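Hi all, posting the design record for the shared folder.

TITLE: backbone redesign
STEP: 1 of 1
STRUCTURE INPUT:
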């Protein structure tokens, strides 16, 4: 794995070329970070993937273009140099899929088909925690609309020549400025808004734990699930994105028992069965979920779906 960084005349613009030791599909790897088709932090344009982030050194927007075994990155903003340094981990260079045993033909085929997909490691807690809380117990399209509204309203303009409409998500102080009425307008009920508020009160502590214990996800999960309104599902959503935890099983996910059961057991698994059933794949249980998701495995969607809940009229 090699990484070369060339600073161009502006100190807030950095060009990077990352040559991973094993093939990495950058776009599909990072697709798990997108919060719906209209995510203002994630866009396909100019022949590549545009993303924004808020790093400790400041906001950044960056453009990724993949050319065979090279991933070219241009980054703009105060966080550009730090983004370049974080790029390999962000793209899953620390992920170890070679230790994964598929055990069944369907997973073996998916692992070959998506051999370049890694578990990314952003290292940024609030970037994943806030939208994960927003996504609790609601349909995806409603959660994505709320995320789009809040980031567009309270985020900052993307630095550099990013596509129009792209934003950098708020920092902790920016999220604290979101008032109850704005959560209401975003169709986020008071329970989820309170859970975000509880996390914001210890945001620095959570980030410090993620920095110090990235290879001990249990420490971070215990801290997260000690907060009101944050359970194992939400912690897992943080774990596989922030820590690169390939075992971050999203227990409680509406699709987990249906997808894993239909594809691997020939029947839909109950919530009380799925964790035990997937135990043989530890420490790659989230990888199993991700491969099944990418492969489109799962039963036909004929059953009842979550009802649309519009809290703005309550």
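Okay, here is what came back for every position:
SEQUENCE:
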């Amino acid at each position: 794995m090699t990484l070369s960084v060339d600073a161009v005349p502006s100190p807030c613009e950095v060009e990077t070329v990352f040559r991973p030791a094993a093939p990495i599909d950058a776009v599909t790897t990072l697709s798990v970070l997108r919060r719906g088709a209209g995510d203002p932090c994630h866009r396909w344009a100019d022949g590549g993937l545009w993303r924004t982030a808020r790093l400790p050194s400041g906001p950044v927007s960056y453009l990724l273009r993949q050319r065979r075994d090279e991933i070219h990155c241009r980054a703009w903003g105060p966080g550009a140099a730090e983004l370049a340094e974080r790029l390999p981990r962000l793209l899953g260079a620390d992920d170890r899929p070679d230790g994964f045993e598929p055990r069944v033909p369907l997973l073996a085929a998916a692992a070959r088909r998506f051999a370049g997909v890694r578990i990314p490691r952003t290292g940024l807690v609030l970037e994943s925690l806030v939208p994960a809380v927003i996504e609790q117990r609601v349909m995806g399209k409603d959660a994505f609309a709320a995320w789009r509204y809040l980031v567009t309203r309270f985020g900052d303009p993307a630095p550099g020549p990013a596509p129009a409409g792209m934003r950098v998500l708020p920092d902790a102080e920016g999220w604290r400025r979101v008032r109850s009425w704005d959560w209401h307008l975003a169709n986020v009920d008071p329970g989820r808004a309170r859970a975000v508020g509880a996390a914001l009160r210890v945001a620095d502590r959570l980030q410090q734990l993620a920095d110090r214990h990235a290879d001990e996800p249990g420490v971070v999960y215990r801290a997260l699930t000690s907060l009101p309104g944050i359970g194992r599902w939400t912690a897992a959503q943080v774990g596989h994105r922030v820590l690169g935890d390939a075992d971050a099983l999203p227990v409680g996910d509406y699709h987990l028992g249906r997808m894993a059961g239909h594809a691997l057991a020939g029947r839909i698994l109950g919530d009380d069965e799925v964790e035990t059933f997937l135990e043989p794949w530890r420490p790659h249980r989230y990888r199993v979920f991700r491969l099944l998701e990418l492969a489109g495995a799962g039963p036909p969607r004929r059953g009842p779906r979550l009802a649309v809940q519009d809290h703005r009229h309550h």
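COMMENT: DSSP finds 14 helices and eight strands in the chain.
Let me know if anyone wants the other runs.
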